[in-house]
Amino acid sequence: MSLVKRSTHGCPGGLPVLLLTACAVAASLAGVPAAAAEPSTLHDLAAAHGKYFGSATDNPELPDTAYAATLGSEFGQITPGNSMKWDTTEPQQGQFSFTKGDVISDFARDHGQTVRGHTLVWHSQLPGWVAALPASQVEAAMTNHITEVAGHYRGEVAAWDVVNEPFNDDGTFRASPFYNAMGSDYIATALRAAHAADPDAKLYINDYNTEGLGAKSDAMYDLVSELVAEGVPIDGVGFQGHLAVQYGFPGGMQQNLKRFADLGLDVAVTELDVRMQLPADAAKLATQATYYRNVVEACLAVARCVGITVWDYTDKYSWVPDAFPGQGAANLYDENLRPKASYDAVRTALGGDDEGGGGGEPGALKARYRNSDPAPADNQIKPALQLVNTGAAAVDLSTVKVRYWFTGDNGVSSYGTWCDWSPLGCSTITHRVAAMSSPKAGADHYLEVGFGSGSLAAGSSTGEIQLRLSKTDWSNFDETDDYSRTTGTSYADAPKVAVYIGGELAWGIEP
Ligand code: 9MR
Q1: Same domain, 307 and 370
Q2: Same domain flag for 173 and 86
């Protein structure tokens, strides 16, 4: 079975504005219905290179319909984040449960997506009964587990992470009930059992901190070289790709992938995310986008790199904040399911246009917004905005206006406005509040921001513009229903903040 699915999908149709994916937003901006534009998804773009672009998911997330819509449309491959692991599938010896895993594999089948099975043999998320077994019984228990689980999913799962995380970071074998009972032979035994249970599935060993050249990837290289030489059924090596901006990008990733591919194996990036110390800021998010792009470029440069899976696609459902307190913002979409700069970077690296922005037209601008106001019920509204020139030519900022819509709630309708900080200098920035002649849901006023002078070069950002407004009677707002506001505290593309160039709408959807 090929892991590359045929592309049949475009943008999901019929979603409310808030739930639109980047492609639909771009289509709306172009003034055509989203469904008619059929722009490429990340998977479509990867498939044009003979690769897949996938995402992990987990059962509790699927009832989130907006989440599921993008999961089902943008990605061509699914990995269950937890539901095919040992503690879920065989919590008591010999008692198997496939309910949760089946939900994920059914979702994938319904959406024309392939599945990477994850994972058969791992030291973690292992029920206590395995560790309690006498060493003499571990091999039989492991083989039975593999036979039952891989057997159940035969024909449904295109590839299995048969063995997960066999190494310590120094390249020595990790102690586990399996290693302790069988030494490193457990790996070949597991692969053979998986091959017997599902001869068509691609069988992988998967690990983290093996993306670049180093002691751990050398150990993996030595192991799989030996397995290949001995004729053990192994088809591929998975590189998880849990990266962090504060640790630098792994050195020699492309060269590393290539040396494994040269053994006659497939390679895949199986769990990509790029975390950062919170709060996120524009610089960290830009570094993150570079890391995502680097990974895509490394995979594209190696013919046997069959695809990339992100370890869920949105910050809303990331494992990172739980595992690394104080860190997060690791995914391609923010917590409001809006594509981030990293999404644009992946698209661009895959050869697509930048649909999070202005479609690459000369002089195209996009607005980015973050919520810098922790108090939605006090007497001030504090939007933080940036403009990014996504086009090929400089834009004369004196022709640009930005609108942020809100409701004035009760009280007077005269306003004070301030620019608190901007690297452009607040003296060049104009701001005022105007009332709308026909109020809309979430909007009866807007803050309009302009620029006295200046030019924004192609590819450049204005940097943060910190704005603030209040009513002259200092009465409170209820910001929670405001049209342009989101709760995201990291910068994200803001389709509900509009940008006008020379009076023409250049970005965003008006209320
Ligand atoms: O995403 C998984 C998270 O929900 C679990 O709590 C965690 C428990 O170990 O496992 C996460 O997935 C891991 C994957 O199975 C193996 N590589 C590391 C992943 C992140 O921890």
Answers
A1: no
A2: yes
Q: Which of 59, 79, 82 to mutate to test the pocket of ligand 1 (most atoms within 8 A of CB)?
A: 82
Tell me the CA distances in angstroms from 426 to 189, 448, 462, 465, 467, one per residue in order.
67, 14, 12, 8, 10
Q: Based on the fold, state whether residues 202 and 140 are members of the same structural domain.
A: yes
Tell me the two tokens of residue 239: 């590189």
Map tokens 């571990």 to a residue: 138
Phi-psi sector, 302: left (phi>0), alpha (psi -120 to 50), beta: beta
Any domain includes 56: yes
Q: Which of 90, 139, 156, 165 is catalytic?
A: 165
Domain range enclosing 477: 360-507
Q: Each residue of 325-361: pLDDT tens digit?
A: 999 999 999 999 999 999 999 999 999 875 544 333 4
Q: What pLDDT, on a 0 to 100 scale, did the predictor assign at position 495?
A: 84
If you measure from the C-alpha of residue 81 to the centroid of ligand 1, how many angstroms do you get, rounded to a whole number? 7
Of 325, 349, 373, at which residue does a domain stop? 349
Structural domain includes residue 291: yes
Which pLDDT tens digit goes with each residue over 449-502?
Answer: 999 888 898 888 999 999 999 999 999 999 999 999 999 899 988 889 999 888
Residue ending a domain, choose from 307, 322, 349: 349
Mutate to test the pocket of ligand 1, among 271, 312, 319 (most ligand atoms within 8 A of CB): 319
- Structurally, the chain folds into a number of domains equal to 2
Q: How far apart are CA 482 and CA 391, in angstroms?
A: 29
Q: Output the residue whose Cα is nearest ligand 1's atom 3.
A: 319
On whether both 418 and 480 belong to a single domain, the answer is yes
- Answer yes or no: 271 catalytic: yes
Check if 479 is active-site.
no
